Amino acid sequence: MHEVILNPRDAADIPLECNAWDDEDFEDEDDEEEELDEVELAVQEATKEAAIFARIQAEQRIKAREEAQKVRQRLEALQKWNDEHPDEDEQYIDEDGMLAHRSRKPPVSVGAKQARAEVVNVIHQNLPALTKVVVEAARREKERT
Predict the structure, then answer these.
(1) Can you spell out the DSSP letters for 110-143?
(2) Which of 9, 19, 27, 105 has its CA 20 to 30 A from that of 122?
């Protein structure tokens, strides 16, 4: 039996021996609630997963930003050190992220006098071979003409 509140004014419209309602009029709302509950659970689960994913992405972005800031600070510190120590080897971070050193001083250049002396010495050492090459070139030039 169903629990129903009847409006006594409607009793005159209902014939005797007749059911004023069908069982279908009183379908269990539990079934509809269960369906809604399943949908609601799926929505809540999807919302939780999306929130977790968004949190992970946000944490990764924050971590990447902090790492970039640390790298920038290390580079600034190295630049400051290099500026304060111009006579020392330059320090830099190589492609592997390791601290490396390189000479800032240009190769030692020789003076003009010393360079001339070295050239003259090389010429003297190779004079027989140079003479042979020059004589051979002159002979070929003479044959052409």
Answers:
(1) PPHHHHHHHHHHHHHHTHHHHHHHHHHHHHHHHH
(2) 105
Cβ-count burial 123-139 (b if 16+ within 10 Å, e if not): eeeeeeeeeeeeeeeee
Q: Please give the share of the chain, as a percent, with pLDDT higher than 70.
A: 77
- CA–centroid distance for 6 within its chain: 71
Between strands 99-102 and 90-93, the pairing is: antiparallel
Q: How far apart are CA 133 and CA 83, in angstroms?
A: 53
- Whether the Cβ atoms of residue 103 and residue 90 lie closer than 8 Å to each other: yes
16's tokens: 């005797």
Radius of gyration of the chain, Cα coordinates, nearest whole angstrom: 49
How does residue 33 score in pLDDT terms, banded at 50, 70 and 90? low
DSSP lists the bridge partners of residue 101 as: 91
HSE-CB of 108 using CA atoms within 13 angstroms = 2
CA gap 144, 66 in Å, rounded: 76
Candidates 81, 89, 120, 94; CA nearest to 105 is 89
